[in-house]
Amino acid sequence: MPNSPTIDRIKALVEGHPIVLFMKGTPQFPMCGFSSRAVQVLKAAGADFAHVNVLEDPEIRANLPRYSDWPTFPQLFINGELIGGCDITVELFDSGELHRMVAEAQKQKDEA
To answer: Where is the Glutaredoxin domain (predicted)?
Structure first.
């Protein structure tokens, strides 16, 4: 994938936050049901997460699917790795795995 200023910015966001959700809207005002559900389960898992509103940043909205090789939003990254979209995030929450991943990411952040 060729580097571009937008790809570099996405990479900096993904690597600069232990947990980041690229979503439509904000955690306070999600603009789609999938983003809303992802925020709900992240909060329920105790996640302290950064977010990017792709509706306010057309460059990120256009380039993130190329960066992540994932076509839809929201997109959850933990420790620089794409976890997936809403369905995967909810499945991880239901299995208890999301709690573990969130706790681990936040522990690493606190140790840094």
So the answer is: 19-83
Distance from C-alpha of 110 to C-alpha of 8, rounded to nearest angstrom = 25
Phi/psi at 83 (nearest 5 deg)?
A: -90, -45
The verdict on whether residue 29 carries a ligand-binding annotation is: no
Read off the pLDDT of residues 35-55 as tens digits, 9 standing for 90 and up. Answer: 999 999 999 999 999 999 999
49 labelled binding-site residue: no
Q: Judge whether 61 is annotated as a binding position.
A: yes
Q: Annotated binding residue at 100? A: no
Q: How does pLDDT run across 76-88, given as a tens digit for each residue?
A: 999 999 999 999 9
86 belongs to an annotated ligand binding site: yes
Q: Is the pTM of this model over 0.70?
A: yes
